Amino acid sequence: MIAIQNLKKSYGELEVIKGITTTIEKGEVITIIGPSGTGKSTFLRALNMLDPPTSGTIEFEGQNLMDKRTNINEVRKKMGMVFQSFNLFAHLSILDNLCVGQTKLLGIPRTEAEKTARELLATVGLASKEDAYPDQLSGGQKQRVAIARCLSMKPDILLFDEPTSALDPTMVGEVTAVIKRLAQSGMTMAIVTHEMAFAKNVSTRIMYMDEGGIYEEGPPDVIFDNPKREKTKAFIHRIKSYRYEANSENFDFIELTNSLLNFCSANTLSRANTNKAGLLSEELTVNLIPHADLISVDFSFPDSQTEFELSVTYGGESRDVTQSGDMPAELVKGIAKQISHEYGQSNMLSLTW
Ligand code: ADP
Ligand code: MG
Fold it and tell me: For ligand 1, what atom is nearest to the CA of residue 42?
């Protein structure tokens, strides 16, 4: 249905999308996930030329959207877009919201448009609201109307940009349920969302966006249960990570300890694990500093707080301070389950527990 080739998008100097090449097949339900600011909305808006790409090609049902001769308004009728903020017409009743596009843009007679509108309102569970106005509805109801309005245009694909993120948590379920039913009916959709459980069970494919493109994509069970790449793993497991960087001249271990403890406290880490992280980072750095130049301390753990990794990366001569008698052996043995050392241009000593 859609073929995207080397799509790029910059805002001035800022290159947000550095090259996306992918296809979307009829019947696919694609969810796009990733940290904020990675260009998920930009990508979606580029797809229907709401925010035209800087370069690349988008072919939709055989038509090149980047070609000036293509009538984008005609194309957009086939690509419905649902926004975070609903975008209903406040001065029109719910029924009129669902008829206006059909009559004005598709030239469908009013009686037929009303029939379609009522059927769609019934499918999103809002048959009784046809005479209401948008401000009389809850957020979840408004979003269901917005979806029904999109469907009234009989699009070939629906694009959703965080359809539930403006909703009160109690209303998320009613909207995701509607989207799930659409998925079961075979509707082709691309959905940007932060609702991971929903993404996992509605999608045929997950795109994880990072570093200006599709960083990793695949079926939901692979992306959620067995992601291959580092940033995907961190995002999926919601790994909390801390980093301190310094060179041997400006290394300040009070600053290190203090900021590490703040990080632990901000992420409600238990006192026992906070103490372990503090002790190890102090011992490792104090013993390495006399020999090392550039140094960074990384500490990370997943949301579940089940495993911890503390590592020190340093330049200069490698030195396993955990073995050389510099550090109290009981301390290391008492905490670390595993100690590993990598040597190269920089060296990394890491301990996990
Ligand atoms: P996401 O949806 O993944 O959170 P966005 O696509 O909204 O990310 O934004 C990606 C980057 O592009 C951000 O750094 C954002 O500030 C920037 N950006 C988005 N829209 C515009 C715009 N209209 N003008 C300038 N910069 C923009
Ligand atoms: Mg966004």
Answer: 6
